[in-house]
């Protein structure tokens, strides 16, 4: 498999977020991963302390220029995630547009990181950039419920709302949308959350078809960082292998997440000791230890196809 | 295995040098790799063009401070390679000394990159830093012949010279030395180069013993970049698994290099014939081409009193152990 991904995300010295979360799993699955580190921090910002440096939009452009001058700017995928700077994000969009001209089949996988649980955790001025510039050039997006609502201006209280929001997102650009988590009530009870996916395709005869799936995902009582980055990377991988079967791609992706998270929470509790809540360092994803699950995830949930 | 490595090397967007060369293989082998990127370049400097940014010694220190403030600065290994800046290198040494105070069992694996084929390709002023500050705190070093000669001030024209140079390097600090390549004549002819290794250990009774090994390594007619970085990382991994068996650690390490390089040169040429040849020749030992690390052993023992080597198996890689009667 000769598949080259350009991933533009954070780098942390220690731990698994951004490029640290995305690269190893994709490489394990045989993807060539070129990575531009948008920042270099000691660790993610959920620790007591963090220190490091950020890449400016100009520096990003300089790196891209280096790639272009060597005429090695052909990519099959671009992957982006958490960004805090509008000029940086706009430079990313410019680069993607140029890369799409170099390869019209390029697939841009975008996690439109804006916030969660009702509030934004990036600067407000990123919102119009995502809405007007980023999402329109994205092919696959992985918003959570808050981000999906924010981007479309429509609230989700029922599955029907979610389907309409995903259709609105399709209309903005991406043919594949996965709402990674929502507070819709799960059929399996309150220890589960609901995720949904929608993939729009054009049949050979020109007519359009949309496959929609719903996942009941087991909740874990802990705050993980980097899981969204891993999710987007694995969705890239599994939609690559199942481009016309969102159900299968989602089952694989959510199953990988399950294995990594289970391994992580078990180890975290072991480190923290009985009756204590694990700390952020203890909750770092057990990525390296999950290599076998990443390579060949045992399916642990069945996605339901919904109309 | 809970083993944490701090690797302070370059990052390239595209390609495999520095941390890009070292991290993935170590992670695949189950090591936790914390990586500080000393630079971020578009690609290595052997391409027609390259662009990017470098990390200053201060910025390095800031990153380390972040790790320390969170009290997560316990490492089992530190790994360093190509550096161009003396203040950066000195900051690296300071950090390593502090990490060794936090964990006295820390093993510092150092590729003392100075040059090759008779000339330096880093700034001259790095030489005294390596000689006086870096190598003394290193536990495992992977110099090439030029670097080994430069650091010790002694030339290598015979295997005996090489053994003496490795002993001089031991005296400077590191208990494990691998001269990754030399122009000593190979027993297998001019399509092979000679590598040597030496590991000094203290027995339970306090006496010292040195295991020395020699590898005849198949040459490839191409210039690869990043192979030294991969070598140092894999030597870290295999000495971790075989801390008292340099012969085995070297066989594993040189074998990985062989597989990666063969696959690379085949792909670069766009042909499969090389791989077929090796698959056939290696079949004798049940060697499966394409796998990362399989035992590929032919043990040969030489004592000081018997110059004849006893060869057990014919294979691509020959490893000779020289047991010395005295240390």
From TrEMBL, chain A:
Keywords: Acetylation, ATP-binding, Cytoplasm, Kinase, Magnesium, Metal-binding, Nucleotide-binding, Phosphoprotein, Sodium, Transferase. GO terms for molecular function: ATP binding; metal ion binding; pyridoxal kinase activity. It is an enzyme of class 2 (transferase). Pfam families: Phos_pyr_kin. It is found in: Cytoplasm, Cytosol. The keyword Metal-binding applies. It catalyses: pyridoxine + ATP = pyridoxine 5'-phosphate + ADP + H(+); pyridoxal + ATP = pyridoxal 5'-phosphate + ADP + H(+); pyridoxamine + ATP = pyridoxamine 5'-phosphate + ADP + H(+). It comes from the Eukaryota. GO terms for cellular component: cytosol. GO terms for biological process: pyridoxal 5'-phosphate salvage. InterPro entries: PM/HMP-P_kinase-1, PyrdxlKinase, Ribokinase-like. Its main location: cytoplasm. Residues 77-268 form the Pyridoxamine kinase/Phosphomethylpyrimidine kinase domain. Its cofactor is Zn(2+); Mg(2+). Its EC number is 2.7.1.35. Pathway: Cofactor metabolism; pyridoxal 5'-phosphate salvage; pyridoxal 5'-phosphate from pyridoxal: step 1/1; Cofactor metabolism; pyridoxal 5'-phosphate salvage; pyridoxine 5'-phosphate from pyridoxine: step 1/1; Cofactor metabolism; pyridoxal 5'-phosphate salvage; pyridoxamine 5'-phosphate from pyridoxamine: step 1/1. Catalyzes the phosphorylation of the dietary vitamin B6 vitamers pyridoxal (PL), pyridoxine (PN) and pyridoxamine (PM) to form pyridoxal 5'-phosphate (PLP), pyridoxine 5'-phosphate (PNP) and pyridoxamine 5'-phosphate (PMP), respectively. PLP is the active form of vitamin B6, and acts as a cofactor for over 140 different enzymatic reactions. PANTHER family: PYRIDOXAL KINASE (PTHR10534). Homodimer. Belongs to the pyridoxine kinase family. This is Pyridoxal kinase.
UniProtKB/TrEMBL annotation, chain B:
Its cofactor is Mg(2+); Zn(2+). Residues 77-271 form the Pyridoxamine kinase/Phosphomethylpyrimidine kinase domain. Keywords: Acetylation, ATP-binding, Cytoplasm, Kinase, Magnesium, Metal-binding, Nucleotide-binding, Phosphoprotein, Sodium, Transferase. InterPro entries: PM/HMP-P_kinase-1 (IPR013749), PyrdxlKinase (IPR004625), Ribokinase-like (IPR029056). It catalyses: pyridoxamine + ATP = pyridoxamine 5'-phosphate + ADP + H(+); pyridoxine + ATP = pyridoxine 5'-phosphate + ADP + H(+); pyridoxal + ATP = pyridoxal 5'-phosphate + ADP + H(+). Its EC number is 2.7.1.35. It is found in: Cytoplasm, Cytosol. It is an enzyme of class 2 (transferase). GO terms for biological process: pyridoxal 5'-phosphate salvage. It holds the Pfam family Phos_pyr_kin. One of its GO terms (cellular component) is cytosol. GO terms for molecular function: ATP binding; metal ion binding; pyridoxal kinase activity. Pathway: Cofactor metabolism; pyridoxal 5'-phosphate salvage; pyridoxine 5'-phosphate from pyridoxine: step 1/1; Cofactor metabolism; pyridoxal 5'-phosphate salvage; pyridoxal 5'-phosphate from pyridoxal: step 1/1; Cofactor metabolism; pyridoxal 5'-phosphate salvage; pyridoxamine 5'-phosphate from pyridoxamine: step 1/1. Catalyzes the phosphorylation of the dietary vitamin B6 vitamers pyridoxal (PL), pyridoxine (PN) and pyridoxamine (PM) to form pyridoxal 5'-phosphate (PLP), pyridoxine 5'-phosphate (PNP) and pyridoxamine 5'-phosphate (PMP), respectively. PLP is the active form of vitamin B6, and acts as a cofactor for over 140 different enzymatic reactions. Homodimer. Belongs to the pyridoxine kinase family. This is Pyridoxal kinase. It comes from Gasterosteus aculeatus aculeatus.
